[in-house]
Amino acid sequence: MIPTQPRQGNLLGRALRFVRFSHTVFALPFALGSALVAAEGLPTGRVLFLILWCMITARTAAMSFNRLADWEIDKRNPRTADRHKLLPKPAAWLLLAVSALLFVAGAGLLNPLCLRLSPLALVVVLGYSMTKRFTDFAQFFLGLALAVSPVGAWLAVTGSFAAPPLVLALAVLCWVTGFDLIYATQDFEFDRRHGLRSMVVRLGIPGALGFSQILHLLLLLGLAAFGASAGLGRIYYASLAPVALALGYEHRIATTLDLEKINRAFFHSNAFVGIVFVTGVALDVIW
Questions:
Q1: Residue 64 belongs to a domain with what CATH number?
Q2: Rounded-to-integer distance, Cα 146 and Cα 150, Å
Q3: Which of 44, 27, 40 lies closest to 230 in space, CA to CA?
Q4: Total number of domains in the chain
Q5: DSSP E strand stretches across the chain
Q6: What is the mean pLDDT of the chain?
Q7: Of 97, 51, 55, 91, which Cα lies nearest the Cα of 71?
Q8: Is residue 2 part of a domain?
Q9: How many angstroms separate the most distant Cα atoms in the chain?
Q10: pLDDT at 257 over 80
Q11: Burial code of 73-93, b = ≥16 C-beta within 10 A, e = fewer?
Q12: Is pLDDT above 80 for 5?
């Protein structure tokens, strides 16, 4: 009998790697930016804490479900073959259940509307993981899953819908769909051989990269439209220039088809986009 390879690191560390906790930085700035505009300044500490709580628990639930849904697929993909070794499947199910319950609880502490909408939010963020089995538009569903974050943050502050977070949600959808098209090029051959569907498989790598560029141009237009709808000023609009440069750098790296470079540019560029965005909003709103 071949001995089982021991899992590396403590349980918490493995759980954080299992859900790629570091990638929380992608959606969080857009939720915080939406909250700052909704509050016309800093929200209360309680509301900020609960927004962070809901963002982290919703994403943890979504990533746990993604790992469980793709458990056998990931085992066959060389890029993801070690994911299932981080946690046993029962622990992954427990992580999913606990994080989903904590998300609903946090939404309930915000306001009644957030509580009523929390099951729908979970359906959206969990549902993405099943889409590549039946549609070519899986990347759009991932974009939708992250696009709910600025709307949810706005609702957390105001308890009502408005135009600015919906405009920002459309921008986030374009951003996430665009960068996931780049990321998904790594799995093009695997997905094609195993009958998994995506825009990259449908369009091919050159077509997917070209479409990603169009989506990121739409992102910049969407961010400008958000600024107009939210009444933001020169500081915010100035922040869009480094955002455009970061996206340009990401697309230039993507054309090399060097997987190591793509991974590095994917994380650094998109983290930079989010940080610059929320910094521009904060400086504009608070000053």
A1: 1.10.357.140
A2: 8
A3: 40
A4: 1
A5: none
A6: 92
A7: 91
A8: no
A9: 67
A10: no
A11: bbeebeebeebbebbeeeebe
A12: no
